[in-house]
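Record type: monomer structure entry
Structure origin: computed from sequence
Chain ID: A
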Amino acid sequence: MPSLETLHEEFEVAYKETLQYLKRWDTEVKNDFRFYALEQWDEEDIEALKEEGRPSLVFDRTGPIIRAVAGSQITNRFQAQYLPRDSDLLDIDSYASKSASKVARWIQQSGDFEHYETLAFQDNLICGVGCTHVEISYDEHPDGRVVGSRVPVWEAGWDPASRDPNMKDARWVLRDRWIDEDELIALFGPDAAENVLSAASQSASGSIGSGLTAHGGSTTQTTERRSSYDLRRPAGVDDKYYDAATNRVRLTEWQRFHREYQTRVVAIDVENPDEVMMALQQGEELPRVEMMLDKDEARAKILLLQEMTESLNFQVAGTPHGPVKDPVWIDNFPTKIYTQSFHTRVEAFSQKVLPQRDFSYQFMTSFEDWSETNQRYFFGLMRPMRDPQKYANKFLSQAVHLFTANPKGALLFEKDMFENPTGAAKEWNRTTGWLPVEVGKLAHNGKDKFRHLTSAVNMRGIESLLGYAIQAVASSVGISESVFVGSMQDIRRTSGEAIDSVVAQGMKTQANPFDSLRLYRKRMGRLLLDFMQNQLDPEILIRIVQGHSGDPEAEAEAQVFLEALANGALTTEYDVVVEEVPSSPNEKAEVFEMMANNQFFTGLINGGVPIPPSMAEFMPIPSQGAGEMKVSLKLAYDLANARMEFESMQLQAEVQQMQAQMQAGVPMGAGQEEQEAMPPRDEGTPN
């Protein structure tokens, strides 16, 4: 790895590039989150309203839409599953993949991943980018636990050259935040924290206070209240980064990758010839190993493996078992090495190689903005909804003002209509609304001596415009409010099938964020696989897989999983897929109830088909009871399969007997005495 001085110089280049890129996007992010926080009026409009005596009302429809779409992914979660890469792998590999899926679910549940993913997905809908962080925490358990957290988007940064969704091809990611002394000690120890604070206090010429604004703001002290997204990053590399009043440092975490070219060697595990011979004799998949070595080390290793392979092939020569293949290698095979370093504004003070093969910061992205040449920005649902929401607020404010300030509308009258026009004007503005006029001005032939005036006709146009503005908020993003955030009357007037159709159509219009969420969960599944392989205590993983149910199959899975951990097979032998499966107890109960109501289990039993033991996982009962039920179902399943196999053997024996009778010329259905009384058949005589 490079020295800290060289590393910090490289960091400064990447940091400046990221700041310059995010300068425009930060403004949009600030507007989106302020709008979501109901700060939906510009300061100029508020001043104009105050001068006119009009209220600055907010009739928000954007927030319910954002929360409704974010909530829809909770009931339709996608869950990562691990499958063997080789379709010919046997049950032993299936055990390992099932165990890995079980551990991944436990990590997500114990680390509250679903909660933080929902928050990040909501950020993605608001501004176009959401971010989470995964790490090993020792705060609650001495052996460490994988925990997740949601990263505020105004603290995150990424490689501007990235072009793939979710910043999948980014060369680096950043997180820029304020760290106090306690957190510095927790992260780096008391000595490192003291050195960082000491260097920071000596380099700083004053406190930055609360006047720091995002990308180009002033560092002057001010008492103006600012939101958290106003304090995104320093304006440049020369800004102060130490707050003497709170003894805090602005710390930047920089994760990047570089490629190292090595020789990849894939070979049969001939260094354990007994296991290879046993696999050959039983016709099983031969155990293999994969190594990443320097070129000189690889040459010596390949020669050794070739000699051992030749010796093993000599032993199996002349047997039905095929020869063992020579090792396969690829020179200059690129390998991504991920590193992590921490920087203040003047120095780097920590760096290490990450054990996983991806960033610990994972992103979600929504819609892409390519309005600038060769530059990509992101936006969410809030941007297209802002203008309709602003107009809805203005129409509502105008309507309320008209109702309260001038409820009767305007009045046209002839000069001799009122006895006292000045007094009539005063009466017009009063709530009583009594307007005396001269005799004979209203009556015709002694009738209709009074007339009721109303402003309903005058307000009809404003009501139509207000309704159009409110509907435009949802229609701008292709959402039907009658289903997502509408009233119960709207839903009661709609059939269930129509609701499902409308919801499905609404999800199609939001394909970008939901597809991004699916890609995010797939990458998170691979990342958790790396954490299992490289960072978690194997004893913890075995306890998770084995459980406390006494299930012998779970114990077998645990042993296979332990072997997969030991030889590194988890990250090399299994692929990650994302499936839509029930992940919460409520969903499992609904699935089980649906099967029971449709007589699914009754149909299996009546048809003589055993109930699969895996169905116990969907039973709405405690986990220990589900484990015991799984054992019982497994016994019944094996017994039913043995009975079916026995009946199949009986049927096969009867068929063979019938074929033998036909070849002997015995009529079908003849008894034993008739068969013995029949003369032997002459093979040369035709029938």
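Annotation 1: The radius of gyration is 37 Å.
Annotation 2: DSSP finds 22 helices and 14 strands in the chain.
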